[in-house]
Design brief:
Elements: E1 2-5, H1 23-35, E2 40-45, H2 58-63, E3 72-77, H3 80-89, E4 93-99, H4 102-109, H5 113-126, E5 131-136, E6 140-141, E7 145-146, H6 149-157, E8 163-167, H7 175-185, E9 189-191, H8 199-208, E10 213-217
Helix pairs in contact: 7-8
Length: about 220
């Protein structure tokens, strides 16, 4: 199963970069991806438009999607406010995320690690549809460096109901680390980056460790 993150970047033929972020353009991309037979697409991120303008207008994106049988449409949330918007959207799957380190959560979501965990648990308790928990910076953090696998294992173990995806957010993992951590946590999926040309090898290592979900992205550097 592939999980495609649709954060649209520059496309040829458009007048300027701002135009690439228009909800209608992003909805069109979602529709075109669905037409290829991709089984799951992350269609929108319910975040603050003033903070992340390239992801603004999530509701407009969802409204522009021509839903297809056989495709599961998911939405990303970081907090309770985002979840309320997601819940009203009618998307099929919730994707809620938190970081594995204290500083990443503070920089990315204005919360301590304990507060981020509590947020996720509260959102999951309210969720009425399938959910994925993505643990960001599971292998390395831009602020705290390498992340202790035991910490990630303990964190993943808190979420035994929803699907868990481990994210190599800054692309520092090696294949043996991906294989070992997915085996330890029994995580369902892997989100990788090809920053150091290890992304493809890491994806294969994740599959070898039993991953059923791989994140991929389209649209250039985008969001």
């Amino acid at each position: 199963m592939a999980l495609v993150l649709c954060d649209v970047g520059p496309r040829d033929g458009l007048q300027n970069e701002a135009e690439t972020f228009e909800p209608a353009v992003r909805a069109d991309l979602v529709n075109r991806l669905a037409a290829t037979g991709v089984p799951r697409i992350e269609a929108a991120s319910f975040v603050r438009g003033d903070r992340v303008p390239q992801m603004s207008g999530a509701e407009e994106v969802v409204a522009g999607i021509a839903r297809r049988d056989g495709t599961e449409y998911s939405g990303l949330v970081l907090n309770e406010q985002g979840y309320e918007r997601f819940a009203a959207s009618g998307l099929d799957r919730l994707n809620v995320t938190l970081g594995a380190t204290e500083e990443f959560n503070r920089r990315n979501a204005n919360a301590s690690l304990d507060e981020a965990i509590a947020r996720v648990e509260s959102i999951l308790a309210a969720a009425d549809r399938p959910a994925t928990v993505t643990i960001s910076v599971a292998f390395g953090c831009p602020f705290e460096g390498r992340v202790d696998p035991a910490r990630v294992t303990e964190l993943a173990g808190r979420f035994d109901g929803p699907e868990v995806v481990l994210a190599d957010t800054i692309g520092v993992a090696a294949p043996h680390e991906v294989r070992d951590l997915l085996t330890r946590t029994k995580a369902a999926g892997f989100h990788g980056h090809n920053t150091r040309n290890t992304g493809y090898a890491n994806a294969l290592a994740a599959l070898e460790a039993g991953a059923r979900v791989l994140d991929a992205s389209v649209g250039g550097l985008g969001g």
